[in-house]
Amino acid sequence: MELLVRNLQTTQEWASDIMSDVYMREIVDLSAKKHSSHFAVSHTSVEQLEEFNMDLLGRGMQQLAPTLWGLFDKLLFVAKKYIGIAVSTKGPEDSDDEDIYWEVFGKDDGTS
């Protein structure tokens, strides 16, 4: 029995090491300037902020880092189902970021 437990731990450590490397490579790839996911706050204009598209960012992440995207999806599912945290697991194509933004911050017409 002890040998079985030791083998299981070794196998889990091996798998964890491999997946950590996969996640690390995907994060490095996502952060590469060539993928336009860099965000330099000190060099950002209001227009750039207004044109920012979370859907596009999500689709890019899903394409460039599918393993990491899958991990986030699973973590959000667990948070929602077992912990009771209200999270959205909608894909980028289902997003309604602008509606959420105005719901949170209110429109600048005195209604907030």
Q: Please, what is the average pLDDT?
A: 77
Could you give the order of the helices and strands? HHHHH
Rg result: 20 Å
Number of strands: 0
- First-residue to last-residue Cα separation: 63 Å
Percent of sequence in beta strands: under 5%
Structural class: mainly alpha
Roughly what percent helix?
55-70%
Number of helices: 5
Reported for the largest beta sheet, the result is: none
Low-pLDDT parts are none
Q: Which overall shape is indicated by the principal axes computed on the Cα atoms?
A: flat
Characterize the structure shown:
This protein has 112 residues and is mainly α. It has helices spanning 2-30, 46-51, 54-64, 66-83, 97-105. Helix 3 crosses helix 4. The longest helix is centred in the first third of the chain and has 29 residues, at 2-30. It starts with a helix and ends in a 7-residue tail after the last helix. The model has no long low-confidence stretch (mean pLDDT 77).
